[in-house]
Specification:
alpha/beta, Rossmann fold, 6-stranded mixed β-sheet, 5-stranded parallel β-sheet, 15% strand
């Protein structure tokens, strides 16, 4: 492709030429309703002063923290900004709650009168957000009575169920986002900028960075910078050449940016059997990286942490796209650069990056399980138990009962080839001990497997990488991990609990992946997840050595 061809793609994106991504009129109509992200810097410009004033007022109302209740694109921007910037002197500490595990929900219910809850859902019907909002509203109401709504803010689209709920319960504020901005492209609108304002960030600097990035993405401007086009072109070229493991390397201060990139790339490109697999939070010896990798580095000017790594990767023959930011506020422009690059990659790969056609299957299966209905494919699932209380479920075609649970799990891992990737998907209460146990298991697996080993906690990943798992290339191995819990927490207005919802989401995704003939297994750790994970790690280390 010539430079003129690539420049033409940039012009067509800015003129909203929907034929870049879709041929059928119906599909083009849908794409046309998802291109508002190109105007997001204008939205920020129009709202930055009012948002800053509002947030300063909030900080003077006695609140001690902000808890964002959101999934996927409605919360990953907030999580990235909170992780990269932290709280400023003018702002409040902010955390994201994007789990349905009852123990995590209970742990978040501290200091309720001093907590501002931000319920964020574009559709207004996201199951997790609906359940969490109802629960925390009930808890705050028990302490504050009719004034409970003062502890809540909503971000949603006009006319949604969440808007109606916010109005009926007298929320302090309901921000209505532009309807033509998709969730994962919404960081520079209310879904990202309301949390940014509450953190006390300088929205003027955020705007200037975003405006500069948009101007640079244009092919016909004096400010043109080919970095977004170059990144999108490199993503597509690498994917077509079999280098579809996009491995993200970041300056330490930018580490929290990785989750947002992971969702944008996975959910935008992972469909129709095509996909780019984002690999984040990974550090391996240079020789351990296969030639199916494509590296993208984003570093801060003056930070030399990755210099030796990048030089060694280049010497080993790996392709690297390296972009530098002047400071952390350059992240606003980096958000736009990645959005534009994904739009370019989608056009070059003949993929529509603005839909997510395969995520609905897991949601539907989860709903049926909560209604007590048996799934037809349940008859094709095999189950193995051991004396320690662990249970392994797999498609029956993969089960060898004589191997035992440990042997069967080892065989599942050993099915992986050099072009595969392995994803661990824990629906667990992620305490420090559990996270450490998962990290040790991942380290053990990386030591013996010649492929990326990725951690995607559930149910977060259902709104992030779940589209890639179901719609992308059938090269993944997926291990869903659950554990039993004694914490029973009712969801107001529902006949099921948070524990029921969490388990149904895990089982629903397992059954959905199995129905698509994906290589998937479901490991239940019983009542002691930390100890069970340690035992699995020991088995990997011991039995892999024995079988070598």
């Amino acid at each position: 492709m010539t430079e003129a061809d690539v420049a033409d793609i940039a012009r067509r994106i800015h003129t909203r030429d929907v034929s870049l991504w879709a041929a059928a009129p119906e599909a083009q109509s849908i794409v046309g309703k998802r291109l508002g992200w190109l105007d997001a810097p204008d939205w920020l410009n129009e709202n930055r002063e009012e948002l800053t004033t509002w947030a300063r007022d909030i900080c003077g109302q006695g609140f001690a923290r902000v808890v964002v209740l959101g999934m996927g694109g409605s919360s990953l921007a907030a999580q990235a900004l909170a992780g990269v910037f932290g709280k400023t002197e003018q702002g409040l500490p902010l955390v994201v709650l994007d789990t349905t595990h009852p123990a995590a929900v209970t742990a978040a219910a501290a200091c309720l009168p001093e907590t501002l809850f931000v319920s964020a859902s574009k559709s207004g019907t996201t199951a997790e957000v609906t359940a969490l909002t109802a629960y925390f509203y009930q808890q705050v109401k028990a302490e504050r009575g009719r004034a409970a709504g003062e502890n809540f803010v909503a971000i949603t689209d006009a006319g949604s169920a969440l808007q109606r709920y916010a109005e009926a319960h007298d929320f302090r504020r309901c921000f209505l986002n532009p309807a033509d901005v998709g969730g994962r492209f919404s960081v520079l609108t209310a879904f990202g900028m309301v949390p940014a304002a509450l953190l006390g960030l300088d929205l003027d600097r955020m705007f200037n960075s975003a405006r500069t990035a948009r101007a640079a993405s244009g092919a016909d401007t004096l400010d043109a910078d080919p970095s977004a086009l170059r990144l999108g072109q490199a993503m597509a070229r690498s994917a077509l050449a079999g280098r579809n493991k996009l491995t993200l390397l970041l300056s330490p201060q930018l580490g929290a940016f990785s989750g947002w990139v992971e969702q944008l790339v996975a959910e935008s490109i992972g469909k129709s059997g095509i996909g780019i697999i984002p690999v984040i939070d990974e550090s391996l010896p240079i020789g351990a990286y296969g030639m199916d990798r494509f590296f993208v580095a984003v570093t801060l000017t003056g930070d030399h942490t990755l210099d030796e790594t990048l030089q060694a990767l280049e010497a080993a023959g790996h392709e690297i796209d390296h972009h530098q930011l002047d400071d952390r506020y350059g992240l606003a422009g980096e958000f736009f650069r990645w959005e534009f690059a994904v739009a370019v990659a989608g056009a070059l790969l003949a993929v529509n990056p603005f839909d997510e056609p395969d995520v609905v299957s897991s949601k539907q299966t989860t709903r049926r399980l909560l209604e007590g209905k048996k799934e037809e494919q349940a008859n094709s699932i095999g189950e193995i138990r051991d004396d320690a209380g662990l249970t392994l479920r797999m498609p029956i075609s993969l089960v060898d009962e004589d191997a035992g649970l440990s042997g069967q799990l080892l065989r599942f891992f050993q099915n992986a080839g050099p072009t595969n990737y392995l994803t661990l998907m824990p629906f667990l209460y992620m305490t420090d001990d559990v996270q450490n146990a998962l990290s040790e298991l991942i380290t053990a697996l990386r030591a013996v497997l010649p492929l990326p080993v990725i951690l995607n906690p559930g149910p977060r990943y259902l709104h992030s990488t779940g589209q890639l798992h179901k719609g992308g290339p059938n090269t993944g191995l997926y291990l869903i991990i659950t554990a039993s819990t004694d914490t029973m927490l009712a969801i107001p207005g529902e006949p099921y609990s948070f524990s029921d919802l969490n388990n149904a989401q895990a089982s629903g995704d397992f059954l959905s992946l199995a129905a698509l003939d994906r290589q998937v297994a479901h490991l239940d750790l019983g009542s002691s997840p930390q100890q069970a994970l340690a035992a699995v790690t020991a088995e990997v280390q011991l039995r892999w050595t024995e079988s070598a």
